[in-house]
C-alpha cells in the first residue's frame, strides 16, 4: 500500500462560546487520500465541513488530532494546501493574469516569473486571450476557472476545493464538471472537494466520504469504481444510480438528524 | 457629461434670474441685497484683489488637507493593525469632533499668530475625521474570505494588508476624500475670517465691515467655484488611481 498523500487523524474541534458554553463541531474525523486521488466530501449543511477544511488549510487549529502530508505532521501549516473558496474572490483591481498569479506572488516569487507560470496554464483553463481582462468582464464559469487556475498554479501537495461550482447555474455547473473531469484525467493532482451535490461527487471523485450531522464523524467512505475519462452520459448508468442511492440514503438520514438538532420540536 | 451638468445649471440660472428681478423690482439698496449682475460687475472690477486673496486660501487648503490626509492615513493604519490602539484611539477621534472649532479658532490665533499654522490646524481638525473613519471602515469592509484566502497562501498580516485590505479600502477612501475636501475649503475660509493677513476669509470680513455686500458675495461665489473644482478633481484622481472601480461599477449597472 502506498503512503497516503494526505491523512486526517482523529481530528476534533470544539469552539468555546460565551458564558463558558462550548460547541462540539468536529468529532474524531479520520480519512486519507492517495497521491493523485480525488476525494469528495459531502455532509448535511452546518455539519462542520468548512471547519474541517479550515483546519486542513491551516486557518484554524484543531482541538485534538492531526493533519499529515506524506506521513509528516503539518497541522496548522498552510504551505501544503492550495485553497479554493466558494466565492471566486477575484480581485477587481487585478487583471485575470495578475489574479491567477496571486498565490505565487504572496509566496515571494518575482512578479514576472509568477505571471509567466500562470500564463502557461491559460489555454488549458479556457482563458487564453483573457490575460489582461478584468474579473467583471468574465462570465461566472470563466471566473471560476480563473479561481481554480489560481489554486492549481501554486503547485501545492493537495488542492482543497470548497464547493467551487456552488454559485453557478446548473448548466454552467455541468459544463464545469465535465471540463474539470477532463483536466483531472490529464494531471495527477490530489484533491479534496466539498460539495452538496451528490452527482457532482460521484462524477468527479475516486472516493466519496459522507460526514455525519454535528458533531461530525465519517459516516461512509465509498470508492467510486467508474472508469476514467468519464462521460457526462455516465450519470444515467445503473452503476452510477446505485452509488447515488447509497449516498442519498445515508445523507438523508444524517440530514434528518441535523434538522432535529436545529429545530428539536419539528421532527 | 452635459446631461449631468445641465439640470443643476438650469436651477442656478433660474434662481439668479429671480434674484435679479427681485433686487431690481423692489429697489433694495445694494448694501443689503445687491443684484447678481452687480456682484459680477463689481467682482470683475475687483478681480485682481480677489485673485490675490484666493491664492493664499488655496495654499492653506492644500497644506492643511495634506496634513489631514497624512494624519488620517497614519491613524487608520495604526488602528487597523492594533486592536488595543483601536480601543484606545477611536473614542478620542470621536471626542475630537466635539471640539467647537468656532471657539477654538480665535485661541489658535492667540497662540500661533496670524500665519499659516492656525489655518492648517483648523483645516486638519475639521477634515481628518471623515478621512480616518472612511479608511477604517474601508479596511474593515474587506471580505473575510478574501483575508482567509490570503492566509491560506501564507500571507502575513502586512501582506494581507497590502494585497487585499488596502485596495479594498480605496473606494471608501475616495468617498471620504470628497467629503473632506469640501470641508477643507470652508475650514480655510473660517480660519481666515477669525484673523489673517490675506485670504478670501479675511477679505470677506473686511468687505462686510465696509458695507461691500456685493464683494462679499463675489468672494462667496469664488469660494463655491473653488470647492466645486476641487470636488471634481477628486473624481479625476480616483479614475487615475483606481480605474477598476468605476469600470466595475458601470458594468454592474449595465
Word description of this protein:
The complex is a heterodimer of chains A (267) and B (254). With 267 residues, chain A is an alpha/beta fold. Chain A contains 8 helices and 10 strands. In chain A, strand 1 and strand 2 form a beta hairpin. The longest helix of chain A is centred in the last third of the chain and has 25 residues, at 238-262. Chain B has one domain (37-253): MetI-like (MetI-like fold, Orthogonal Bundle). In chain B, helix 7 (144-152) crosses helix 8. The longest helix of chain B is centred in the C-terminal third of the chain and has 38 residues, at 157-194. Chain B is globular, with a radius of gyration of 22 Å. The model of chain B has no long low-confidence stretch (mean pLDDT 92). At the A-B interface, strand 6 and helix 3 of A face helix 7, helix 8 and helix 11 of B.
CATH class of chain B: Mainly Alpha
Helix content of chain B: over 70%
What is the helix content of chain A? 25-40%
Mean pLDDT score of chain A? 89
In the CATH hierarchy, what is the superfamily of the largest domain in chain A? Answer: P-loop containing nucleotide triphosphate hydrolases
Proper CATH architecture of the largest domain in chain A: 3-Layer(aba) Sandwich
The number of helices of chain A is 8
Radius of gyration of chain A: 19 Å
H/E element sequence of chain A: EEEHEEEHHHHEHEHEEH
Amino acid at each position: 500500500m502506498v503512503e497516503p498523500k494526505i491523512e486526517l487523524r482523529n481530528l476534533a474541534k470544539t469552539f468555546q462560546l460565551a458564558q463558558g458554553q462550548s460547541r462540539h463541531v468536529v468529532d474524531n474525523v479520520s480519512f486519507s487520500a492517495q497521491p493523485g486521488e480525488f476525494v469528495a466530501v459531502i455532509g448535511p449543511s452546518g455539519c462542520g465541513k468548512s471547519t474541517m477544511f479550515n483546519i486542513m488549510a491551516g486557518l484554524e487549529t484543531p482541538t485534538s488530532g492531526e493533519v499529515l502530508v506524506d506521513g509528516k505532521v503539518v497541522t496548522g501549516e498552510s504551505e501544503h494546501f492550495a485553497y479554493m473558496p466558494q466565492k471566486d474572490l477575484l480581485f477587481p483591481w487585478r487583471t485575470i493574469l495578475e489574479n491567477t498569479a496571486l498565490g505565487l506572488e504572496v509566496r515571494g516569487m518575482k512578479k514576472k516569473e509568477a505571471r509567466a507560470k500562470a500564463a502557461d496554464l491559460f489555454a488549458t483553463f479556457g482563458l487564453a486571450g483573457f490575460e489582461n481582462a478584468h474579473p467583471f468582464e468574465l462570465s461566472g464559469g470563466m471566473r471560476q476557472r480563473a479561481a481554480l487556475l489560481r489554486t492549481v498554479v501554486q503547485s501545492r501537495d493537495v488542492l482543497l476545493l470548497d464547493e467551487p461550482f456552488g454559485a453557478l447555474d446548473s448548466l454552467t455547473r455541468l459544463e464545469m464538471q465535465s471540463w474539470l473531469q477532463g483536466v483531472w484525467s490529464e494531471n495527477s493532482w490530489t484533491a479534496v472537494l466539498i460539495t452538496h451535490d451528490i452527482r457532482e461527487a460521484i462524477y468527479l471523485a475516486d472516493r466519496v466520504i459522507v460526514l455525519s450531522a454535528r458533531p461530525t464523524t465519517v459516516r461512509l467512505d465509498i470508492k467510486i469504481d467508474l472508469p476514467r475519462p468519464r462521460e457526462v452520459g455516465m450519470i444515467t448508468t445503473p452503476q452510477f444510480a446505485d452509488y447515488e442511492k447509497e449516498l442519498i440514503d445515508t445523507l438523508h438520514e444524517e440530514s434528518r438528524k441535523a434538522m432535529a438538532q436545529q429545530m428539536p420540536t419539528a421532527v | 457629461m452635459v446631461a449631468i451638468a445641465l439640470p443643476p445649471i438650469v436651477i442656478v440660472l433660474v434662481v439668479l434670474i429671480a434674484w435679479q428681478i427681485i433686487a431690481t423690482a423692489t429697489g433694495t439698496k445694494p448694501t443689503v441685497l445687491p443684484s447678481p449682475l452687480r456682484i459680477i460687475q463689481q467682482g470683475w472690477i475687483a478681480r485682481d484683489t480677489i485673485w490675490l486673496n484666493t491664492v493664499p486660501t488655496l495654499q492653506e487648503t492644500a497644506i492643511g488637507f495634506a496634513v489631514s490626509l497624512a494624519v488620517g492615513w497614519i491613524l487608520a493604519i495604526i488602528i487597523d493593525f492594533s486592536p488595543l490602539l483601536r480601543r484606545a484611539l477611536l473614542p478620542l477621534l470621536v471626542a475630537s469632533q466635539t471640539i467647537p472649532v468656532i471657539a477654538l479658532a480665535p485661541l489658535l490665533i492667540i497662540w500661533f499668530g496670524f500665519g499659516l499654522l492656525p489655518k492648517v490646524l483648523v483645516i486638519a481638525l475639521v477634515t481628518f475625521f471623515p478621512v480616518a473613519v472612511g479608511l477604517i471602515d474601508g479596511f474593515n469592509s474587506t471580505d473575510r474570505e478574501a483575508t482567509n484566502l490570503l492566509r491560506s497562501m501564507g500571507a502575513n498580516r502586512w501582506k494581507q494588508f497590502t494585497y487585499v485590505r488596502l485596495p479594498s479600502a480605496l473606494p471608501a477612501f475616495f468617498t471620504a476624500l470628497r467629503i473632506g475636501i469640501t470641508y477643507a475649503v470652508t475650514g480655510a475660509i473660517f480660519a481666515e475670517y477669525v484673523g489673517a493677513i490675506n485670504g478670501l476669509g479675511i477679505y470677506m470680513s473686511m468687505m462686510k465691515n465696509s458695507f461691500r455686500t456685493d464683494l462679499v458675495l463675489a468672494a462667496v461665489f469664488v469660494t463655491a467655484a473653488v470647492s466645486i473644482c476641487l470636488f471634481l478633481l477628486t473624481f479625476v484622481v480616483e479614475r487615475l488611481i483606481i480605474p477598476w472601480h468605476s469600470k466595475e461599477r458601470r458594468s454592474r449597472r449595465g
